[in-house]
């Protein structure tokens, strides 16, 4: 396995978002594509939340979720696979593109165990994790007592500070999302 750590597995949390196209189908695609990747085992998937867009210009609402994986991939290899899944879903990143603009699929590496990385193109924990209710709410479902590796407080404390029920709204699970959650072994509401 390229980019794998022999005999080692790390718990990582990945954010999923989409505000273009068949949003929920794109989130399902991402979970299934990552689950099919050697060196990645999907452990749990949060509920889906509909959230107001963060960024410039008029945009449609996002669907957001978080998944927990056990991975033998090093963080750079895991991120590279996530970026490949985005491309497979039709995401384009043209030079000069609008930052935080609309996208078919957005995958972010939020946490990689309790490790911290600051490299070009790879910053873990995600540098704005603690500021984003649309990530903290679904992450809190899966890792509420996990400590933020840099800031030292549990995810639940950060989620409580950022909570905005009018901007981050849980959706009723569709049959396809329920099926994804059942396959990964953890179903929450």
List the helices and strands and how they pair.
Blueprint: E1 10-18, H1 23-35, E2 40-45, E3 49-51, E4 62-71, H2 75-88, E5 106-112, E6 117-119, E7 122-124, H3 133-143, H4 155-162, E8 168-170, H5 175-183
Antiparallel strand pairs: 1-4, 1-5, 2-4, 3-4, 3-8, 6-7
Brief synopsis:
This protein has helices spanning 23-35, 75-88, 133-143, 155-162, 175-183, and strands spanning 10-18, 40-45, 49-51, 62-71, 106-112, 117-119, 122-124, 168-170. With 189 residues, it is of the alpha+beta class.
List keywords for this structure.
189 residues; six-stranded antiparallel beta sheet; 8 strands; globular
Describe this structure as you would to a colleague.
By secondary structure, the protein is of the alpha+beta class. The chain has a domain of 130 residues: 7,8-Dihydro-6-hydroxymethylpterin-pyrophosphokinase HPPK (Alpha-Beta Plaits, 2-Layer Sandwich), CATH 3.30.70. Helices cover 29% and strands 23% of the residues. The chain is built from five helices and eight strands. Strands 1, 2, 3, 4, 5 and 8 form a six-stranded antiparallel beta sheet that branches. Strands 6-7 form a two-stranded antiparallel ribbon. A hairpin with a 2-residue loop joins β6 and β7. It is globular, with a radius of gyration of 15 Å. The mean pLDDT is 85.
């Amino acid at each position: 396995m390229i980019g794998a750590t022999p005999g080692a597995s790390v718990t990582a949390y990945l954010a999923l978002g989409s505000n273009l196209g068949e949003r929920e189908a794109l989130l399902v695609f991402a979970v299934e594509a990552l689950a099919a990747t050697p060196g990645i085992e999907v452990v749990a998937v949060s509920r889906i939340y509909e959230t107001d867009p963060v960024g410039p210009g008029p945009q449609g609402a996002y669907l957001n979720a978080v998944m927990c994986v056990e991975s033998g991939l090093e963080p750079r290899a895991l991120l590279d696979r996530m970026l490949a899944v985005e491309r497979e879903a039709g995401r384009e990143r043209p030079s000069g593109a609008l930052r935080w603009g609309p996208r078919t699929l957005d995958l972010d590496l939020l946490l990689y165990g309790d490790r911290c990385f600051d490299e070009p193109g790879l910053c873990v924990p995600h540098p704005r994790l603690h500021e984003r209710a649309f990530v903290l709410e679904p992450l809190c479902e899966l890792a509420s007592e996990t400590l933020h590796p840099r800031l030292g407080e549990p995810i639940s404390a950060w989620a409580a500070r950022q909570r905005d029920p009018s901007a981050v709204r849980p959706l009723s699970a569709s049959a396809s999302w329920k099926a994804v959650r059942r396959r990964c072994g953890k179903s929450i509401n």
